[in-house]
């Protein structure tokens, strides 16, 4: 009889129009009898969803989805009993038990079907909205949170909840009174699921407001100071991870709400004694949860320091000093401190954190004798002091049983500091013998090959060379200290088997660092240049160039050009022979042709370039820009001619020995006019060039009148293209390599030059 009654009531439920009318009546008239009827319907075995045929699930899918969605609407009825029963019904979708009695001819729908119908019906949205009706009703609120916790296990529901502002709605109530502790636990679980299964950026945006961050701050503080159980500590760490994710948003008011200051205090109070009442008398144990907390606090400092206003708080909190307490030789730990494995992991994490923080707080770094501390620690890393590294963490990868991990992160820190190009810092390093120490470490490493940890060894070598480059660039004295020992380690790397460049272990990075060190540590220092040449360094450079790897070509060619200032270089270049007796000239011509092919340059039957002008799809503005490009090329071509003229013999001497003096004078006159036109941003009409052949002299001269382009960008007027006097000055044949401009130090793919 009960089943028959349920059947008729279920018919009523799936009739959405009837249901909506009943809800409206119950809501407006507060009809308790009607609410009880609904309660009876829902209570009957929690809506078993019986079916006769398998196809019923598809046939009645829409009606079923609408019916489940109505459960959320029923939450509007002000009946505590009804609301709790609805929540129990929904939770039962996820923990369904087989029916106690089997009804002949019927089967129960699967749990997955009910869950899917809840997603389709958008039940998650109405359940989120129902939270606003339960401000002071703790029991019902906890049941709704339990429902949302289950619903948030699906991506579909999380997206729906996120759009209904679930994240901010739940977060702002984290501190609501709750003796059971369930509210905080379930709320944090829901926030986790929303971050993982919906749009992380949108959830962060919802949580990045003062109200939410104040709630998180108070929860974290309470758990940090008064949470002693295993469960409390886990929950505290979860809240910190959520906070760290929010802190990645630069618009989050972390400083304004005071959360940043508190986090810095909590991260450093163990290392730097504080009289702040928040941490007075507090101690961290060596439990797993406290150990994880310490690492999370180091991590949040790295996130927070990306926001520049945080810098002063980091200074006030003595963060650099706190982190440096780990940059020292391991000592016997007290019983209350970390275990050896924990201390090693925290040590590596602290050094990694310093790599991010120290460049921002360089004055604090120097006041803490940062250079001396790091160099002393590196000395220990290289020593034979017995040390059994555990190497069982992310930062300890590849460092088991050795000190490679410690050396790796210390060099990263040193590299970050050196590349600030702060002369006070770099001078202090050089005075402390850093150049010699780096070369010594490099030589020691290559004397003891370690194939097992090859990738980490290569990274260490790369960082050493980059540090040396940063210290020696533009300083002849330091290049002299680099000397022949430094040249030897550079040559050692250049002799690496070229096949290893494709191994993926880091040989490419090491080669880039090596080429950079040639430019910064050798070029411009005559003894080092000569030693490099004597040791057949030019041959090695040409061997690398012959590999035809585009990523290296630009840097190698630049180095070769600089080396050509040394009169001894030409003989080495001419003496080189590659495979199949290839010469340097042949190699360079081959590279030029390859570059032309990649650019798609077209030539006519006589070899003349035919497509600088014929470019399809250009607007009027594009043609103006093209005209500017042409003028610049005109200038560069004419300036090059003038440089060659001044660097060799004067025109007058040349004309005296030439039979066709009249024609050459005319060519000279045309060149000078072209330079003058370029100087004042004028250019021959129609940008047409023609070749003039004069008894072996092949030069390009412009023809036609001149026009003024009024739309020349203002940034070019009075810019570097105007002053041709500098470009026309005679370049020294000897007197050191040209210094690199710091702004173009970064090594990229070679820029495509336009061949003419």
Q: If you had to describe this structure to a student in words, what would you say it looks like?
A:
- The protein has 756 residues and is mostly helical.
- Among the domains are: 167 residues; 103 residues, no CATH class.
- The protein contains 37 helices and 6 strands.
- A hairpin with a 2-residue loop joins strand 4 and strand 5.
- The N terminus and C terminus are likely disordered.
Give the SSE layout.
Layout (H helix, E strand, L loop, with lengths): L1 H13 L1 H14 L2 H12 L6 E2 L4 H4 L1 H14 L5 H15 L12 E2 L2 H11 L1 H7 L8 H14 L3 H9 L2 H6 L10 H16 L2 H8 L2 H17 L3 H18 L11 H10 L19 H17 L6 H6 L2 H6 L15 H18 L4 H6 L2 H13 L21 H15 L4 H9 L2 H13 L7 H19 L3 H19 L12 H16 L3 H9 L2 H10 L3 H14 L5 H7 L8 H16 L20 H28 L3 H6 L4 H19 L2 E3 L4 E6 L2 E6 L3 E3 L15 H5 L28
Antiparallel strand pairs: 1-2, 3-6, 4-5
- Number of helices, where a helix is a run of at least 4 consecutive DSSP H or I residues: 37
What's the oligomerization state?
Answer: single chain
Radius of gyration: 38 Å
Total beta-strand segments? 6
The overall pLDDT average reads 79
Structural class: mainly alpha
What portion of residues is helical? 55-70%
The largest β sheet comes out as: 2 strands, antiparallel
Low-confidence stretches: 1-35, 678-756
What coarse outline follows from CA principal-axis ratios? extended
Strand order of the largest sheet: 1-2
Strand content: under 5%
In whole angstroms, the N-to-C terminal distance is: 97 Å
């Amino acid at each position: 009889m009960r089943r028959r009654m349920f059947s008729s009531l279920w018919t009523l439920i799936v009739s959405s129009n009837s249901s909506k009318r009943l809800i409206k009546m119950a809501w407006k008239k507060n009809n308790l009898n009607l609410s009880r009827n609904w309660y009876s319907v829902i209570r009957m075995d929690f809506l078993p969803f019986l079916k006769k045929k398998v196809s019923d699930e598809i046939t009645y899918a829409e009606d079923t989805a609408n019916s489940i969605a109505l459960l959320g609407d029923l939450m509007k009825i002000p009946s505590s009993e009804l609301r709790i029963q609805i929540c129990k019904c929904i939770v039962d979708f996820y923990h369904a038990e087989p029916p106690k009695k089997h009804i002949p001819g019927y089967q129960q729908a699967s749990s997955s079907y009910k869950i899917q119908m809840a997603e389709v019906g958008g039940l998650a949205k109405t359940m989120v909205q129902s939270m606003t009706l339960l401000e002071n009703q703790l029991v019902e609120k906890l049941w709704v949170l339990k429902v949302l916790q289950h619903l948030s296990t699906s991506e579909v529901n999380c997206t729906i909840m996120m759009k209904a502002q679930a994240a901010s709605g739940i977060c702002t109530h984290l501190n609501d009174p709750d003796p059971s502790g369930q509210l905080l636990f379930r709320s944090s679980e829901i926030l986790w699921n929303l971050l993982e299964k919906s749009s992380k950026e949108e959830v962060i945006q919802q949580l990045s407001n003062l109200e939410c961050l104040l709630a998180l701050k108070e929860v974290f503080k309470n758990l940090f100071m008064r949470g002693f159980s295993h469960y409390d500590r886990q929950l505290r760490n979860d809240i910190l991870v959520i906070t760290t994710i929010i802190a990645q948003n630069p618009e989050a008011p972390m400083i304004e709400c005071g959360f940043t200051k508190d986090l810095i205090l909590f991260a450093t109070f163990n290392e730097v004694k504080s009289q702040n009442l928040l941490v007075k008398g507090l101690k961290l144990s060596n439990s797993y949860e406290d150990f994880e907390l310490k690492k999370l606090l180091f991590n949040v400092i790295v996130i927070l320091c990306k926001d520049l206003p945080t810098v002063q708080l980091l200074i006030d909190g003595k963060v650099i000093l706190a982190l440096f307490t780990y940059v020292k030789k391991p000592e016997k730990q007290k019983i209350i401190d970390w275990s050896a494995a924990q201390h090693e992991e925290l040590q590596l994490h602290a050094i990694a954190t310093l790599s991010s923080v120290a460049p921002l707080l360089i004055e604090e770094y120097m006041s803490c004798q940062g250079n001396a501390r790091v160099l002393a620690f590196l000395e220990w890393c290289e020593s034979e002091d017995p040390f059994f590294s555990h190497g069982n963490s992310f930062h300890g990868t590849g460092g088991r049983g050795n000190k490679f991990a410690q050396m790796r992160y210390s060099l990263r820190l040193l590299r970050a500091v050196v590349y600030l190009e702060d002369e006070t810092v770099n001078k202090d390093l050089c005075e402390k013998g850093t150049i010699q120490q780096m070369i010594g470490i490099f030589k020691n490493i290559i004397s003891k090959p370690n194939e097992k940890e090859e990738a980490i060894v290569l990274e260490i070598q790369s960082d050493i060379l980059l540090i040396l480059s940063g210290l020696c660039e533009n300083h002849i004295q330091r290049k002299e200290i680099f000397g022949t020992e430094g040249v030897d380690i550079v040559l050692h790397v250049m002799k690496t088997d070229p096949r290893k460049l494709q191994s993926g272990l880091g040989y490419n990075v090491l080669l880039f660092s090596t080429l950079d060190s040639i430019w910064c540590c050798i070029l411009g220092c005559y003894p080092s240049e000569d030693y490099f040449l004597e040791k057949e360094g030019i041959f090695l450079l040409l061997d690398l160039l012959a590999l035809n790897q585009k990523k290296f070509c630009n840097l190698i060619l630049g180095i070769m050009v600089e080396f050509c200032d040394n009169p001894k270089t030409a003989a080495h270049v001419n003496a080189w022979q590659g495979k199949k007796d290839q010469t340097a000239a042949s190699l360079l011509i081959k590279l030029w042709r390859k570059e032309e092919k990649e650019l798609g340059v077209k030539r006519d039957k006589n070899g003349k370039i035919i497509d600088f002008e014929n470019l399809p799809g250009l607007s009027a503005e594009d043609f103006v820009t093209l005209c500017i490009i042409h003028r610049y090329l005109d200038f560069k071509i004419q300036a090059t001619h003038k440089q060659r003229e001044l660097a060799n013999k004067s025109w007058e001497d040349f004309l005296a020995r030439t039979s066709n003096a009249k024609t050459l004078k005319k060519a000279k006159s045309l060149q000078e006019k072209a330079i003058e036109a370029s100087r004042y941003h004028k250019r021959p009409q129609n940008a047409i060039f023609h070749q003039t052949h004069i008894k072996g002299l092949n030069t390009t001269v412009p023809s036609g009148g001149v026009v003024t382009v009024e739309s020349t960008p203002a940034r070019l007027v009075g810019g570097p293209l105007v002053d041709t006097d500098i470009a026309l000055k005679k370049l020294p044949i000897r007197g050191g390599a040209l210094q690199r401009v710091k702004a173009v130090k970064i090594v990229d793919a070679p820029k495509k030059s336009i061949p003419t």
